[in-house]
Amino acid sequence: IFVALTLRYDRHMSWKRNPVGEFRSTDFPKPYFTACFIAYILGLVTTTAVMHIFNAAQPALLYLSPACILSVLITAAIRGELKELFLYTVEDEKKKEKEDEKKKKRPESQIIEQIVEQEVIEEKKVQVEEIELEELDKMSFEEQVSISKKMFYGGLAFLPFLWLVNFMYFYKTSQSPNAPRELKKYIYLSLTGCITWFILLTTWYAIFVNKRVAWSTDVDGITVVIPKGV
């Protein structure tokens, strides 16, 4: 379902860039779907590989969920579309689909008027979004470094996702030629910390699931659910 949703989001972003085009068209760029689909396949391969290496069944979602979610977040960060991603809703698409159905029943003059009105509305939306996205650019580098530094140290309190947000939020700014080295230092340290946490947690979970029975019964104290008969 999540992979299918990324395809729908690709269609939404394509229509947003070209609102005059046919909303139901299948000919549009699919960066999010491609990234998520590849991540899904890699997640399945990883699950199968770990299953054979440890000779024990693996919870597929342990690998698929992070792979799919991170692939979409990283794609959005690279394309500078994180804000649009988090604000996405299917309500706009439903309205657009209803409008397309009504257009087929309207005279050509009314269709042209509707297109013009839609373009004006979309232009206003873009202007508002540009103003909101410029808020980060209005900050001085000192303010950005201060925020990034706080987010990095906040991630040390066992909050690896705060590191991920720090990296994605300031990555685009850090690529500026005038960006201070300190800003780059904190966002790349955050990325390194997030990846390290993910690897450690995944490794620990895989080892624990496969070795729990062989270990002492004392480890059952940290097990949330113990299958019956084990």
From TrEMBL:
Gene Ontology cellular component list: cytoplasmic side of endoplasmic reticulum membrane; lumenal side of endoplasmic reticulum membrane
InterPro entries: Gamma_Secretase_Asp_P_PEN2 (IPR019379), Peptidase_A22B_SPP (IPR007369)
Topology in membrane: Multi-pass membrane protein
Swiss-Prot/TrEMBL keywords: Endoplasmic reticulum, Membrane, Transmembrane, Transmembrane helix
UniProt cross-references to Pfam families, sorted A to Z: PEN-2, Peptidase_A22B
GO biological process per UniProt: membrane protein proteolysis; signal peptide processing
Example GO molecular function: aspartic endopeptidase activity, intramembrane cleaving
Annotated compartments: Endoplasmic reticulum membrane
Main localization (coarse): endoplasmic reticulum
TM helices/strands, residue ranges: 32-54, 60-78, 151-171, 186-207
Name by which UniProt lists this protein: Minor histocompatibility antigen H13
